[in-house]
Amino acid sequence: MEKKKNRRLIILACVLLLLAAFALSPVFPYVRSLAVMKVYSPYCAKSSIMAEQNIELEIPSGDGWYPFVMTYEADEDFSSYIGRPDTKLTILYNFPAFSLKNGCSRFFDESSAYYNSFYGAYLVRCADGEPFGFSLDMRNPDEKAVSEIAKFDFFTLVLNDFGLTPNEQVFEYSLACEQTDVSFLGYDGWTQISSDLNVNGANHEKRGFTSSYLQYGSPSFPVSSDFAPVKMKSIVYAKYFPEWGTAVFFYVMSPSEDVCENCVQTILSRSILKSRE
Predict the structure, then answer these.
(1) Which one of 25, 175, 176, 242 has the minimum C-beta count within 10 Å?
(2) CB of 180 within 8 A of CB of 191?
């Protein structure tokens, strides 16, 4: 009887040691991220514009990126940011894949073409019935208003949580090219906006724990300087859908023009956007 008890204690000790070793390994943050986002993203989707307006919106993933696109609701923060009460903002987003060696996303890897990169879609619906980011005829997007969504996303939802202060914020935007009446995802009337950005980079020295590390992992790549600005490219497809009362902006932003163009061709162009039957 005593031998069986000792054997169970040895087995339990081995299991605990293996769990401890796993928790300390660089693979653990990736598994933790998957577990957290597999629960949190569907939770946010339940109160999204897609759920409210009965919209089917699916964006795939691809090489170099996290395995699936996530959903986030930023209604109250965005309403306050733009000064228009009861405005809804649903964000679909994806970020660079994890480095299992470093235990965090290459979102923090300054040597990677995917550094500081995102892609996905913004959906905006205003309670006052006027389209956000478009002229009143609902045809012409305002690229400056579109850039404000990205600015809000970068700072309010991401970099500020890492410790970037308002005085350190860098966001410079310039329009590179605009094409109107573009066909995209089976719809005519999109506007394609290509832009140049100079914005703070995500890489920094970790000084404590923040909730954002649950999805990105804690930064562990070499740091040139905390939140050093980086020049980036951006491609946006913008269209207002009156049947949903919603402005839709598909986007990709990256320091690499090749990453942006490849994302449009192999990922965003394969998205599904339609009313649910």
Answers:
(1) 242
(2) yes
Residue by residue, what is the 3-state secondary structure of the chain?
CHHHHHHHHHHHHHHHHHHHHHHHCCCHHHHHHHHHHHHHHHHHHCCCHHHHHCEEEECCCCCCECCCCEEEECHHHHHHHHCCCCCEEEEEEECECEECCCCEEHHHCCCCCCCCCEEEEEEEECCCCCCCCECCCCCCECHHHHHHHHHHHHHHHHHHHHCCCHHHCCEEEEEEEEEEEEEECCEEEEEEEEEEEEEECCCCCCCCCCCCHHHHECCCCCCCCCCCEEEEEEEEEEEEECCCCEEEEEEEEECCHHHHHHHHHHCHHHCEEEECC
Q: How far is CA 71 from CA 27, 39, 85, 121, in A?
A: 24, 11, 21, 9
Structure-block tokens of residue 9: 């204690």
Question: Per-residue confidence at 215, pLDDT binned at 50, 70, 90?
Answer: very high
Of 94-98, 123-127, 202-206, minimum mean pLDDT range: 123-127
Report whether 253 contacts 234 (CB < 8 A). Answer: yes
One-letter amino acid at 43 equals Y
Tell me: pLDDT of 202 over 80.
Answer: yes
Query: How many angstroms separate the CA atoms of 147 and 135, rounded?
Result: 15
Rg (CA), the chain: 21
